[in-house]
Write a structure and sequence with these properties.
With 231 residues, the protein is mainly beta. It contains 2 helices and 17 strands. The strands form 3 sheets. The chain has an 8-stranded antiparallel beta barrel with strand order 1-6-7-10-11-13-14-17. The protein has a 4-stranded antiparallel β-sheet with strand order 2-16-15-12, with no helix packed on it. The longest helix has 17 residues.
């Protein structure tokens, strides 16, 4: 009985919405909101502290926040889109030891030009795009575990008091996704970005400092809703 009710509800919704969906038009504004997950594909240079080398550097974990896209359709098939989000926060750990190194927050505004191949009245609107990403890091924090580990590496009786800073990054961005419109205004969205994010990490403490490059290069996945409107 439950299956029949589900089928009946789906059929009713399809009948209600399917006849009013349409393709994008030049001049449309599009807002997308949803859960965005930043999943880094980290590649770190070795970390050298005194005479000790940590060959595998650091690892950066993932985080999920509210993703926000704003797009303007320049033509029926081309849209200019800005990706924004609430700040992502990532924990950083050493790859060569069970040590929590610290954390950082970042904002990754990304501008892409998207191509929509479909036309006519199709409610399905797949797209691909390419553009540029700027990533700003802030609120870098060093974990006490790293302070203790650095103290041990340097042969000190007490933990060091380290400070972490990460350089901001510019890089290319790739984009793909699909909208499914329920009516002329509202739809569902699934999308993915690849962001080229590279930074130099600088760890400073009274007894010295160390710097190393980190390629974060995350995939960003987002599921949410789409709203289309005109001024």
């Amino acid at each position: 009985m439950r299956h029949y009710l589900t089928l009946a509800l789906f059929t009713a919704l399809s009948t209600l919405f399917a006849t009013t969906a349409s393709a994008y038009d030049a001049g449309n504004f599009v807002v997308r909101l949803g859960a965005a997950n930043v999943d880094p594909d980290t590649d770190s240079d070795p970390i050298e502290v005194g005479s000790t080398t940590l060959p595998n550097g650091v690892d950066v974990d993932d985080d999920t926040q509210l993703g926000i896209n704003l797009m303007y359709m320049v033509t029926d098939h081309w849209g200019l889109e800005l990706l924004a989000a609430t700040p992502f926060e990532h924990d950083i750990s050493l790859e060569d030891a069970p040590v929590e190194a610290g954390s950082t927050k970042h904002l990754p505004p990304t501008l892409t030009l998207n191509w929509f191949p479909m036309s006519g009245e199709s409610p399905w609107q797949p797209y691909i795009g390419i553009g540029v990403n700027y990533t700003r890091f802030f609120d870098e924090d060093v974990d006490n575990e790293l302070n203790e580990a650095l103290g041990n590496i340097l042969g000190l009786p007490l933990p060091v008091d380290a400070k972490l800073s990460l350089d901001d990054s510019w890089g290319i961005a790739g984009r793909a996704g699909i909208d499914y419109f329920l009516n002329d205004s509202w739809g569902l969205n699934a999308s993915v970005w690849y962001l080229d994010i590279s930074t130099e990490a600088d760890i400073r403490f009274a007894e010295g400092s160390t710097s190393f490059d980190v390629d974060i290069d995350p995939w960003v996945y987002m599921l949410g809703i789409t709203y289309r409107f005109d001024f």
